[in-house]
Amino acid sequence: MSSAIWPATVECGDLLLRPISHRDKREWLQLRQRNAAWLAPWEASNPQPGAALPGFGEMVRSLNRQAKLATALPWVIAERKAGVGREPVIVGQLTVSSIVWGSAMMATLGYWVDQASAGRGIAPTAVAMATDHCFGALGLHRMEINIRPENAASLRVVEKLGFRDEGLRPRYLHINGAWADHRSFALTAEEVPEGLLARWLQERDESR
């Protein structure tokens, strides 16, 4: 199963989801440093006293292990930009995790995007690309996204894409040093028979 689903790259115009790599370390760390204040309120933290999150190398190794077990799809969000040789530049990260097969056929999706790239539709497009890949290529049935109630930008992403609000999960994840409530949003394959990306792109173009 794992060799059939990973590695995988998904593209839409100048935007692509590609596997995260150890070679991304310098670019990824620079991007995270520039976005430290932007991401801090939503940053996952370790509830164990004195414990820290893994470094870049450990994170990539862990994600790659999960990918080999067919339980995760660890992507960076990259964009081809004019004036930089058309080589895709990392503008965020998107991970499909907690993939459950068998009778569930579901997964959870999480992402972050560079503040300088926010507001241009990158996040909803990337989420739609990943969701379509999971529903189409992998045959999954349900995608779930959990968001802090205070995270207005991420709430707008799931609203634009038509994810259903399934309610509040009290103290769901340890975020920025404390157990934090999250709202749970979900979408099933039957709700987007024409594909989520096609629907999103059409709605985006019609609103311009």
From TrEMBL:
Q: Which residues cross the membrane?
A: none
GO CC, any one term: cytoplasm
Mind listing the UniProt keywords for this protein, alphabetically?
Acyltransferase, Transferase
Pfam families per UniProt: Acetyltransf_3 (PF13302)
Q: List, for all copies, the residue spans of the domain called N-acetyltransferase.
A: 15-190
Recorded GO MF terms: protein-N-terminal-alanine acetyltransferase activity
What family does the entry list?
A: Belongs to the acetyltransferase family. RimJ subfamily.
This chain belongs to which protein, by name?
Answer: N-acetyltransferase GCN5
What is the organism field in this record? Arthrobacter crystallopoietes BAB-32
The lineage, from the top, is: Bacteria, Bacillati, Actinomycetota, Actinomycetes, Micrococcales
